[in-house]
Amino acid sequence: MESNFPTAEELVAALRAGDVSSVELTDEAIARIERDDKTINAICVPDFDRARAAARDADRARARGEDLALLGIPVTVKESYDVAGLPTTWGIPAYRNHLPAEDAVQVSRLKSAGAVVLGKTNVPLGLQDIQSFNEIYGTTNNPWDPTRTPGGSSGGSAAALAAGFGALSIGSDIAGSLRTPAHFCGIHAHKPSLGLLASRGMVPPPGPALPADQDLAVVGPMARSARDLTLLLDVMAGPDPLTHGVAYDMRLPPPRHQRLGDFRVLVVEDHPRIASGVAVRAAVNRVADALTEGGARVERHSALLPDLGEAATIYMQLLVSNSAARFPMEAYEQVRARVAGLSADDDSLEAARLRGVVLSHRDWVGLNGRRELHRHAWRRLFAEFDVVVCPVTPTPAFPHDHHPNPMERRIDVDGVAFPYFDQLVWAGLATMPGLPATAVPAGLSPEGLPVGVQLIGPMFEDRTPLRLAELLEETMSQSRAQH
Fold it and tell me: Can you give the CATH number for the domain in which 112 is found?
């Protein structure tokens, strides 16, 4: 598969130099979509006429001397973001004709920065899967192997980037929905610190676009390079002007270090709840070797690391309680009956998920208190380390699995079957405490599939894992060139 598409940073430089126009870049991206997306099915809602008009406007603006961060750059947007005049369905058939009247705050920020929106990318039903398929738009395939998923729920965006359909995209993440598709498709993505980016207009239909604070869920940038992540994060970052933005300005601290040799890194490849596959272990070790060769201080164990098993249990209950609040009463009562039949000593993740469905507010408050203890443990750890390197999921992209009951699906880790949703424990490691995490490519599996890792950083120090991602990209590119 072709994978040497130019980065947004390179395209910005070419536009500034007059080597190419936005109209040319947009027409090229549209032509590639029309040629290749029949196989991939990443772009579920094209908006080509308005994209061409925006590209012409961008070229005229540049001719007048304007120079915005993304002026004339073709981008895509996850289907779950409101774009005025385009459907926002979240893959739910009942809302196939839901047309929001205004752009989501992040779509507005893209357009204000001069980006050209090519269209919207596919998602799973209700954004509630590790794959990307629904009755309205069908199945999105992985560009590296169409028999496999690109991940979810930002799978359409990751597949679009991997296939060269625009230079940037925006997605969202509550259960690895930015990081898992990046890992499966060989691109970069950044899950920002909880609360750093405004999410208004990224709401299930037909709900109003309110500036509500979300628990666990974030929106974030996706790109083909680490530097592009920083470029796009700077466009997206900042409080909602309707709430915190009334009183606060955002100023992210700089990265803790600029040189690779100054970083202190903890590498973690084992999780007590699920095995890590051979291909994923190899990727983690490739990154660890590159860090060591670059002079970073790399350690494999620390007593400061919070209990991963407890973290997974807390995360699963918080995650499920978040989505189950909208369950129909009949479904809720069915789960409550199952929970009543659980053994008191059943500490499986499946039991945690079931208990999360019927979690009382009193129990949620207690669970949130345990989360705060984990957050404090992470603060202590990040006094000794700058970044934690670990898997995104236990495997590379897996074959499509559309079994109608996700609870009956299994994930195969080197021949051993685990419950499908247990693979979320690595994503939850950063999500539960609200930490920033950058997904970066780390080579290919023996089958030729992309494999990535995530770099978890300190709360609101997003530039630290992003800077390490940039340095890793440079180091590993040089190493591949030498070999």
Answer: 3.90.1300.10
